[in-house]
């Protein structure tokens, strides 16, 4: 990985008085949109949610979420990046920031969580800290069981790594134990979740992790308010 991929040109955004921002990235076909839909279904009755999707030329992912009715239409918006997806989540984040802030304003500051789904990208893709407070990186077993070992900034540094489509492992010859060992080594203790949305449509382990992140953000916000 070159310095170009590791450099974040933006400072972390102030976290108080706004929704927590969760980025979901990963390669094409890894299941980012399906995971976003699963999280919306699992959390929409307990959290105020909204979603920003990223596609290069279309609004296909946002359209899918609307057809699936995972949230009300006014809680879903799309960004057409017009360039490599990592550009819009790391280098020039203005379109995504505008989309997030418009959702927050539309819902009167009541949102707890905004999920931002990146377009499909490579293993170096990671959200800028100026855009996302926490981030999930999604792989799927069909990409090969050597992918966690290869690392990359997304695999190594995301707050949560999700290895998806575990129900396909036997069919594609992927060794889940090997992937778990390699991921643990590359990620140096950061959490890893193995998921099958076919077998567990609610992605319970990932949803539980998100709940914990939101609780921690709320507690931090209360502590900050009391200190002020």
What is this entry, summarized?
This protein is α/β, with parallel strands linked by helices. Helix content is 41%, strand content 17%.
Spell out the blueprint of helices and strands.
Blueprint: H1 3-6, E1 20-25, H2 32-43, E2 49-55, H3 60-67, E3 76-80, H4 85-91, H5 94-106, E4 113-117, E5 134-140, H6 147-150, H7 153-157, E6 160-164, H8 169-172, H9 176-187, E7 192-194, H10 204-227
Parallel strand pairs: 1-4, 1-5, 2-3, 2-4, 5-6, 6-7
Classify the beta-strand content into a percent band. Answer: 15-25%
Strand order of the largest sheet: 3-2-4-1-5-6-7
Secondary-structure content class: alpha/beta
Instruction: Give the end-to-end Cα distance, rounded to a whole number of Å.
Output: 42 Å
Number of DSSP helical runs: 10
The major beta sheet can be summarized as: 7 strands, parallel
The overall strand count is 7
Helix percent band? 40-55%
Structural features, described:
- The chain has ten helices and seven strands.
- α2 crosses α10.
- The chain starts with a helix and ends with a helix.
- β2 (49-55), α3 (60-67) and β3 (76-80) form a beta-alpha-beta unit.
- The radius of gyration is 17 Å and the shape is globular.
- Strands 3-2-4-1-5-6-7 form a seven-stranded parallel beta sheet, sandwiched between helices.
- By secondary structure, it is α/β, with parallel strands linked by helices.
- It has helices at 3-6, 32-43, 60-67, 85-91, 94-106, 147-150, 153-157, 169-172, 176-187, 204-227; strands at residues 20-25, 49-55, 76-80, 113-117, 134-140, 160-164, 192-194.
């Amino acid at each position: 990985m070159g310095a170009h991929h590791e450099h974040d040109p933006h400072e972390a955004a102030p976290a108080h008085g706004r929704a927590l921002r969760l980025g979901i990235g990963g390669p094409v076909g890894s299941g980012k949109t399906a995971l976003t839909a699963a999280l919306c279904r699992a959390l929409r009755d307990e959290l105020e949610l909204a979603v920003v999707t990223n596609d290069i030329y279309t609004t296909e992912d946002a359209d899918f979420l609307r057809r699936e009715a995972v949230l009300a239409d006014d809680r879903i918006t799309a960004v057409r990046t017009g360039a490599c997806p990592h550009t819009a989540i790391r280098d020039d984040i203005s379109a995504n920031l505008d989309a997030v802030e418009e959702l927050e304003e539309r819902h009167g500051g009541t949102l707890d969580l905004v999920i931002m789904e990146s377009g499909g990208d490579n293993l170096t893709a990671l959200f800028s800290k100026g855009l996302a407070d926490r981030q999930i990186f999604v792989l799927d077993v069909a990409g090969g069981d050597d992918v966690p070992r290869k690392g990359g900034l997304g695999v190594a540094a995301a707050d949560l790594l999700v290895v998806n489509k575990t129900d396909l492992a036997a069919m594609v010859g992927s060794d889940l134990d090997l992937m778990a060992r390699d991921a643990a080594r590359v990620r140096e203790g950061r959490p890893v979740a193995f998921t099958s949305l076919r077998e567990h449509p609610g992605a319970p382990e990932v949803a539980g992790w998100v709940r914990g992140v939101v609780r921690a953000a709320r507690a931090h916000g209360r502590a900050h308010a009391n200190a002020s």
